[in-house]
Amino acid sequence: MFDTENDLSNEQRAHDLALLAVQAEINRNLISQLNSESKDVELDIYNLYFNSYKEALIAVAKDFG
């Protein structure tokens, strides 16, 4: 079995979590647009990724040092 605790850096873990957060926000916005039939919502994907990454990196560092 893989020993993922030692295979991934905290930066890689944070990156993966940030991508998931961005995808979840995109999906949430798409569902909202479908429900409201609105096309006015714009996302700053880079800003969303960067903020998610910073927050995830702090959280991951608490668990993985």
Question: Topology, pairings included?
Answer:
Elements: H1 4-7, H2 10-36, H3 45-64
Helix pairs in contact: 2-3
The radius of gyration over CA amounts to 15 Å
Number of domains: 1
Distinct helical segment count: 3
- The tally of strands reads 0
Tell me the series of helices and strands, N- to C-terminal.
HHH
User: What about the largest sheet?
Assistant: none
Strand percent estimate: under 5%
Name the overall outline.
elongated
Helix content estimate:
over 70%
Distance between the termini: 22 Å
Attribute tags:
mainly alpha; 3 helices; 78% helix
Task: Give an overview of the whole structure.
- The chain is an all-alpha fold.
- It has one domain (10-64).
- It is built from three helices and no strands.
- It has helices at residues 4-7, 10-36, 45-64.
- Helix 2 (10-36) crosses helix 3 (45-64).
- The longest helix is centred in the middle third of the chain and has 27 residues, at 10-36.
- The protein is elongated.
- The two termini are 22 Å apart.
- The model has no long low-confidence stretch (mean pLDDT 87).
In brief:
With 65 residues, the protein is mainly α.
